[in-house]
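Issue: ligand-bound run for iron/sulfur cluster - logging full I/O for the record.

Environment: standard queue, default settings, no custom constraints.

Inputs:
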Amino acid sequence: MLFGRHKKNPIKMADKKVEKWSYATCGYCSVGCSIEIGTNADGKVVGSRGVGGADVNRGKLCVKGIFEHELFTSDGRGDKPLSRDKVSDNYQETTWDDAASTMASEITRIQETYGRDSFAVVSTGQLLTEEFYTLGKLTRGVIGTNNYDGNTTLCMASAVSGYKRSFGSDGPPGCYEDFEHTECLMAWGSNLPEQHPIIYWRLQEAREKRDFPLIVVDPRVTMLAQKADIHLAVTPGTDVVLQNAFMHVILNEGLEDSDYIKANTVGIKELKAEVQHYDPTTAAKICGIDEDTIRSVARIYAKAKTAMGIWTMGINQSTHGSDGVVGINNLSLITGNIGKPGGTSLSITGQCNAMGTREWSSCSGLPGYRYLENEQDRKDIGEFWNVDPEFFPKKRGLAQTDIFPAIETGQIKGLWLVATNPMTSMPNTERTRRMFEKLEFVVVQDSYVDVETMQYAHLFLPASTWAEKEGVFTNTERRVNVTRKVVDGPGESKPDFDIFNLVAKHFSKSESMSFPENPEAVFDEMKVLSKGRLLDMSGMNHDLIEKQRGIQWPYTEEQAKKGELPPAGGKRLYTKNATFCFPNGKAKLIPLPYIENNEVPDEKFPFWLNSGRLVEHFHTRTKTGKLGNTNKYSPIPFMEINPDAALDMGIKQGEYVRCISRRGDAVVMAMLTQRVARNAVFIPFHYFDCVNRLTLGLLDPHSRQPAFKQSAVSIEKLEDQQAAAQLSMEMRNF
Ligand code: SF4
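Outputs:
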């Protein structure tokens, strides 16, 4: 009997009369699932399905991927360029040529009046890699502003910073196949079932074949924590203390891998000295995990033949984000768990192409993991692009989270936003709003015309999305995968790639440079620039990538010439001794003293505020909020609150409450659950004018990533429930 029924009714699949399936890579998260998009005899998109032969997802998709094809006809798509002189005016339709010409003249005016860096560009993790590369060439080689960054600073900057500090380069060393080999997995602030559902499915499949301990470190009882063998509900923001305590136990009990440390690392003496301050008894009082548990978990981890550490925003979005990543790397290095099957330190990336922007956008440097600070790198790229190397700045400019405060101080006067929505995604919405009001010229380039930041734009450039254009993404495990163009974007919208090329043509400086007309030609440039480097992709091309259902870098021209196909499964970095990216080939073990610098709950604001993702939504809901099949699961925001805390305040399940911080307030529906501690609440981050009205967003000193997850709030019961419900609805237009 199934759920009380005596007869099982088979699911009937509607025949959508698909005539052709076209290959793509999911455009939401960084798992990088291979998708086929079905079109009928009229060329109309009617469905999507997972690709069975793709190693990443093996035919599966999550709820977002299953309905992704509905994006092509969703509400709110921009189909014409729009402009206005003042933000108080209504938008008027304009032509692409006029839009690009206005843009070029405004950028020139601002730079001539206030200096070259007074115009800033903030990009995303959602463009195709060829588009990132082209935007980088335009921004670094033509416009010449040094204040150029991506919204990836809000999600992955700490992972990048931590990898660079430990290994000498960005680039996750592991792969999903490591789940098949590991004997212990420690997940830090990572809720895979909701954030990266198909990676979670790979993990569960591996555990069903061969059980191994899953240890989850997270203040909240997330879905992953519910599946864990051991859940460590750490005090928010104190992961580094717990990591130091683990290392104290490992190093003092002789559980480290001395041979590996000697052959591959520097700094063990200094690390050992630092962790002496974090004996489990002392650490327990700070991080909230009892000393016996600290000892036994450290022993389980260190004694496993292979162990891996994974993490997501719980580590990255903290004032200690970069240190937390280095701490995970330290743990991997002292136990010899890098570069071997099942032994790794793997950041689970956020957006579909956060890796592509890290590798090729030139946001924090120059393409192909090159540095502005390195003279040879400036010279090489200058020669390749035909740009005087002296035109490049000699060190990177402001990160996204410093660009906005620089607007406040008058240092930045103009802003070009590409596929990002800071009015919803930045911490402290009211402050962000005031910053936007100070700008003289704002360009919003987006697939959606109703994106909230449009309130402050002077120019709107409608962009195509996902399979309305062609190019590649790189996923969490360094797998480059291709998306083919299936349909045209709506109306006059253009691929971002074409928009960058058009804007470039309106600057005379671009005349001496080459801006290829198609993505494959751009990919060829990237191949040349990748040769011999960590991210070598010189053996790849779009057709081979599709045939292999994605190829992990490195994959060299020599391998391709020899006919050596890339492995279907996983590929790892740093597999041989002393091959890390510092000149001596050795990784750095870095001591991590802990400094308490978060906003913490007090008498007036007694709750920790945590924020995070829901499986059915992506980022600021620009896409998923328009699709009934995803939006229906959570069309309005809610707040998880512990039932005991709710009882104290007389708050019932489903009632609206006011959540208040020192920055502002938000009206949310209360959901009573034991998932959160009595002194904590959780609000999803997808909604406009909601959780980020409350967040403080102190910045990590290394990565400049905001601490979205550590703020203090109070809760107020609302008397007029009807008015609160009305407000909650009105604040979300879709
Ligand atoms: Fe897309 Fe990520 Fe879902 Fe895969 S897991 S279908 S990549 S959103």
